[in-house]
Amino acid sequence: MEMQLTQKQELKIALTKELVQAIELLQYSTLELQSLLHEQALENPFIELKERKRNERTDSMRYIENVSVFNRSLASHLHAQLVGMRLCHEQKKALDYLIASLDESGYLHTTVAEAARHLQLEETIVCEALHLLRSLEPAGVGAENLPHCLYLQLIRLPQRDELAETIIMKHFEPFVNKKWKEIKTILRVELADLQRVWELIRTLHPRPGSLYNDGQLTYIVPDVIVSYDHGVWTVTINEEMTPTVVWNEAYERKVHTDDPSVQTYIEEKRQQFQWIQRCLAQRSTTIEQIAWQLLDKQRDYFEKGPLYIKPLTMRDIAKELHIHESTVSRAVKHKYMQTPHGLIDMRRFFTSGVDEQVAQDKVKHFIAELIKNENGQKPLSDQKIADLLEERYNICVARRTVAKYREQLHIPPASKRKQYA
Q1: Residue 273 Cα distances to 42, 248, 249, 251, angstroms
Q2: What is the second-level CATH architecture of the domain 353-417?
Q3: I want to staple 134 with a disulfide (CB 3.0 to 4.6 A). Which of 142, 222, 246, 338 is the partner?
Q4: Ranges for the RNA polymerase sigma factor 54 core-binding domain (predicted)?
């Protein structure tokens, strides 16, 4: 066997630090990009960030509609109701512990005995505190489980309903599973009475604690703004929240010397600055190009509304722009578009097809409409819904597909939608 040296030429993509940074910049949201630029400014003393001036159009929007639910926790809401009450130290101690033990739904997963043992208090003190907690708003807070939560809400009603209270506390499982004939026989009531109780229960809240939010306010800033004015569609990259990156010439003159090491340092930082500028420019260009493609291919959505989103893949956009599919995926990740129909996640424009023409959201809308207008005493089965979709809307879907979409809409099956009066 003879050993020899040979040369072989290969092409490989080396993921340099700069290339990785360019990829990261593309997939960052506006707020993430803002944070990254501030980090770069701290690392590179020659980078200066200047806030952009608000223009009239974006300033008038104020993004009020993009704010999440109010920021008040369940605990703070409960404590606020205790202000002014004359409570002894032990009662306050017990209440603080019980409130802190509530889960996000408002349920209490500890017992009086456990709380008393942990706090080294008499059980009667903890019982009094628990009774007071359950008298606060929202009704149902401090419950042990779902039936108990509903019961606590029922006993707060101006007119007590003994049948509803009995059903919830003693026949909850068969009731929610619509085994009403069994309950009818046991309680000697009519199906119409059970239907009335069912409608009453549906007005109650199964998770009262979820009405309150422990998190911070979340603002969604649109990355792209699409508008229609005087017959013309426009696409604008929202750079209002992104500061302008400029080279600090004053600082360069201040530190400039003939020292080769200093000059090398300045040149390295200049290259870093120039690379960030190129990445930002490329990011804006890519997102704008994709936005124009979405406007072109999803014109029905922009002109008519959300129900008219068409099936579209990222590969379709990538092919038009002569870029890789993964580039499209990164560019729309965590990006939002302000449209005439409100704010929309750009990924929502890419929907899988149902019968090659109709988007899933549209099919779900039709399913919800059919169920909304059905005869409650003869609810539509999944197969019947599939037949009606084909008959009325020329949409051919299987029964199991209807069942899947119905479940995603949190709509119960026909057996649980049946009304008896």
Answers
A1: 12, 10, 12, 14
A2: Orthogonal Bundle (1.10)
A3: 142
A4: 65-251
**Which tokens go with 74?**
């369940």
pLDDT at 309 over 60: yes
List the domain boundaries for the chain.
17-61+220-349, 74-211, 353-417
Query: What percentage of the chain exceeds 90 in pLDDT?
Result: 50
The CA angle 168-170-173, to the nearest 5 degrees, is 70
Per-residue confidence at 68, pLDDT binned at 50, 70, 90?
very low
d(CA 294, CA 350): 9
Q: What is the mean pLDDT of residues 55-79?
A: 60
- Rounded distance, CA 203 to CA 153, Å? 10
